[in-house]
Specification:
The chain is an all-alpha fold. Helices cover 81% and strands 0% of the residues.
Length: 430
């Protein structure tokens, strides 16, 4: 009986969104209210841009190089706006997600390869999210890492329950969690009193300081432009609001683009805040902090216990919310690439095994987070290149096909990512 009520409430909420969206498309709603039925998908995708891997790479970058690498966040987020807009547009134009179209268009062997590598990428990101949330519990409450990891698993199951109640419930829950992370870092920036002139220079002056800074930039890129978010976003828009014709699809995309820009601005601001706070507190005092546990304790020493708690809370919330998004992405790639599906809760249970094994093995949590971000950076091209191929194809996209400049920009971004990854391989091997 309870299950039936949940399903009925889910259908009622989703029907209301579709009715509201259709009223917008019919021109019956004006002003900012037009955005309301279309807000949400980008915020779920944007959670992937705020996972604990970002904490590890950004805190390290800020403490080592001050405000130097802020421009990498700016560039990565500009890339993210383009990439996520292409993914959302693909779902709107075709009614299918990226893995489904790849399955239809590519040979079976290619689809299987793309599925395997995407699952490995999702394991890497899930590792970062799971360990990050467990570390947050450890830092805040002193709970040992293994019990903290088990509590994290329970928490991620609870967030997945929101999805069962409909995408509006999930979007509201994820939105509330993003708000907590935003407030936590807003407080930290205020307390740390950064040099705003240096912040401005760092944001708009592209430069490096040796090989290690390039490696960190690659980690930042891997933590910001997330492959699984590319797959997921197309599934979030594919049947949420369905356009009846080309004109309606174009209107839907324009409204979804506003959702993407708002979500990416928020994600980018939080990522920059991490570097800014680390630079203002650690770099300024000549401290190189490469461990999130050390960062937590130094926040307490330099800026007080409330700042430390806000940092730990942000880490915990970011890990919990992004771990559920990773599980959803895993479901999308499996169903799309190989047309198979397993229960989300079973998938969540299976994906707890690698992080638990790492915790039991005693691997340093921050080291595991940073390496996971490097792995993620290798997966970007395998998601991005098919995305550009498909969205540049008029037969697939119809009236929403990429403009020539859009495709060219996408290919330039792909080339930069591939070259950066080749450099990473060379540096790690030699």
């Amino acid at each position: 009986m309870l299950e039936q009520q949940v399903v009925e409430q889910k259908l009622i909420k989703e029907k209301k969104v579709k009715i509201s969206a259709q009223a917008v498309l019919d021109g019956e709603v004006k002003g900012l209210k037009r955005l309301l039925p279309f807000l949400g998908p980008a915020f779920i995708a944007a959670v992937a841009y705020l996972d604990p891997g970002n904490f590890a790479t950004n805190i390290t970058a800020g403490s080592k190089y001050g405000y130097l690498l802020l421009w990498v966040i700016v560039a990565s987020n500009l890339m993210a706006v383009l990439i996520q807009s292409l993914s959302a547009k693909l779902g709107i134009a075709t009614g299918k997600n990226l893995p489904e179209i790849a399955h239809d268009r590519f040979p079976k062997g290619v689809s299987i390869f793309l599925w395997i590598q995407s699952e490995l990428v999702i394991i890497a990101t899930d590792l970062a999210e799971f360990i990050g949330a467990a570390l947050g519990l450890y830092l805040l409450f002193g709970i040992p890492m293994l019990p903290a990891a088990l509590i994290t698993a329970v928490g991620s199951f609870a967030i997945l329950e929101l999805q069962r109640r409909g995408y509006r419930s999930l979007e509201a829950g994820i939105g509330a969690m993003v708000l907590i992370v935003v407030l936590a870092f807003t407080f930290q920036v205020i307390v740390s009193k950064p040099d705003m002139g240096a912040v401005a220079v760092g944001m708009f002056t592209p430069r490096f300081d040796g090989v290690d800074s390039i490696l960190l930039a690659a980690g930042i890129l891997g933590a910001t432009v997330m492959p699984h978010a590319i797959y997921l976003h197309s599934s979030l828009t594919q049947d949420r609001v369905v356009g009846r014709n080309e004109a309606e699809k174009k209107k839907i995309f324009k409204l979804e683009l506003a959702d993407i820009i708002i979500a990416m601005i928020i994600a980018g601001a939080v990522n920059m805040a991490m570097i800014v706070v680390s630079a203002a507190l650690f770099f300024k005092n000549g401290m190189v902090v490469e461990d999130l546990g050390v960062a937590f304790h130094q926040f307490r020493e330099l800026a007080g216990p409330v700042t430390a708690v806000s940092f730990g809370l942000g880490l915990l919330i970011a890990g919990l919310s992004s771990s559920s998004v990773g599980t959803m992405a895993g479901d999308v790639v499996m169903q799309g690439f190989i047309n198979k599906r397993i229960n989300l809760y079973l998938r969540r249970a299976i994906t707890t095994i690698p992080p638990l094994a790492i915790i039991i093995a005693g691997v340093n949590a921050t080291d595991a987070l940073i390496m996971s971000q490097v792995v993620l950076s290798f997966g970007i091209a395998f998601a991005l290149i098919p995305l550009i191929i498909f969205t540049s194809n008029r037969q697939i996209m119809g009236g929403l096909v990429n403009l020539r400049i859009t495709s060219i920009t996408g290919w330039i971004i792909s080339a930069l990512v591939v070259l950066l990854n080749l450099f990473l391989v060379f540096e790690m091997l030699y």
